[in-house]
Amino acid sequence: MPGKRWPATLAALVLTAGMAHAQDARLDDSRMFSTGEEAWNKVCSRCHSGHENSVGPNLLQGSYDEDIIRFFARHGSGPMPAFTAAMVDDTTLSQIAAYVIANHKEPAE
Ligand code: HEC
Q: Name one Pfam family in it (predicted).
């Protein structure tokens, strides 16, 4: 009875469209972090601040540009996990990069 299958197909379509929409809304929704500094502190600094338990290099003492920071954040490297746009959106990532570049400090001898 082909006629009877329509409502279910339609319901599935509406549901799928609704879910896709909810996902889009979530990605452009209000950002998780209000500033680059906050995102840096919550997402990156535990591995990159150069304190004794930090596993990654101290980024504030390196020379990085935004492209390099973005590349590592999106792809990960060795023990560093990759961060998807759902975890750290593009705007936030630019602000993290701006924060790291603006707070650069020469390593103490
Ligand atoms: C769980 C710990 C961890 C977190 C969280 C983390 N990283 Fe890393 N990151 C590392 C490690 C370890 C390395 C060195 C990787 C290697 O040797 O291949 C690294 C390397 C890097 C490098 C390259 C440094 C160099 O001189 O080679 C950049 C840039 C970087 N991370 C940026 C970030 C940013 C931006 C964030 C936050 C979005 C972040 N990382 C979060 C662990 C982490």
A: Cytochrome_CBB3
